[in-house]
Every structure is written in C-alpha cells, then in structure tokens.
Amino acid sequence: MSMREGRDEAIDRRRLKVCIIGASGKLGRYMVQHALDRGYEVVAVCREKSAGKLEAFAGRITVLPGQTNDREVIRRAVAGCDGVLAVLVPWGVHGYSTGTAQAVLDYAPADARLVFSCGWHISRDGRDLYSLRLRALVKVFSAVGRLTRLLDIRDQEEACRRVFASEKRWTVVRGSDLEEGESQGLPVWSRHVGDPILESNTTRRIDYALFMVEALVDDGLIHEAPAIVGCRTPSALANGPGATRER
Question: Which of 6, 17, 81, 141 is the most buried (most CB within 10 A)?
Fold first, then answer.
C-alpha cells in the first residue's frame, strides 16, 4: 500500500461529521445511507413537510427541518462539519439553488469538503460538447420552468458559478440521466461532456449518491466538476478506466 493510499484509508475510516442538504429526496436518502454505512455522523436538512421521509433513520441522524436556502438553518447545520453534501435544485424563481450554495460557502468551516450536485448542463469552462437533443431539452425545460414559475435553470447555473469562484475545497458532481436499481459500483467520470466514456448517459441513483459521499475523501476531486456515468454502462466498459479523466 502506498503512503497516499494509507492516508486516504485513514481519512475514510475517521468518523466524519457530514451535513446532507436535501436529505429527504431520493438522492439525499441514498447519501444518508452511504454515509451511515461508513460510520459517519450525519446532520440532515430538509423541508419540514418532508421530514417524515427520514423516519427510517430515526435515532441515527440529526434532522434540522427548514428550507434548504434558509441561511440560519444552514449555519446551524454545517457548524463543526467535516463535509457538506448539497443537492442544488432550482425550485421556483427566487434563487433557491443560489441561496443554498451561498449559505454553504459562507458558513461551512474553512477546511470542510463541500460537494454539490447538479446536471450535465452546467459547464465550468465552456469546453463541454453537448448533443442537439440535450441542448434542446435544456431550452424547453428552462422556458417551461420560467413560464410556470416552478423552476429556473439559470438559478442552478448562478449557484455553480459562485461555487466555481470560491477558494473553498469544493467539488461539483454533474450527473447524467438517473435510474433506479442495485448498485453497480462507483461511477466513472470525465472533466468534459463529449468524452466517449459518457456516451451512455445513465447512472444508477444509488451510485450517484455513492460518488458524492466518496468525493468527501478524494482529494483528487477538489476544484473539479466531474461529469459522471455508471461504471457498468456500455460506454464506460468500452472506453476503460483510463478515459475517466481528460487526457
């Protein structure tokens, strides 16, 4: 075992205190379970009306009910945490994702690992190559979302822009289409959409959550925006592990 492997294993075995923002959603509940499986202390933030979805974890986690963009709720939730996992959902038209991201950036401890989730449509450097279908879908969802006032894709883009500009120890995980099913293992990733390894555009939701939790202890993901895909998808198998990072 190398010195780095030994250090990473030691970090992984340490009892981390982790805040999970958006814990009551499907992705959030998977993240809670993965964190508990590793022996981590979990503080969960979710809307009060959704707190019942976390009853399966009663007695094993601390739940702070409240809007996930409520700065006071986030301040209390992230206090003393080694890591924060935040689901950036652009609900409504009042900066929900941006408020969540900014509160985490403002109140998380200086050395905490911050891991945010979003979709492939977010581009850090403009070098992602999107299909016509994906670009069309983003335009349609963006237009319909603003018209119905249910969501605002631009809000998620602004949230990620603020994260990218931060000097904190962040990772932004960009997910492909999600499906349910048993875990297939840790997804593979690339810095840019358009890499052949991502072509299958599918990840098990349980494995997306696994990648988020793993990012807490993977220093190689600091200041990265990995686009992920399931490790057993045809494109991942065809292109091999050497293609998970830009060459």
Answer: 81
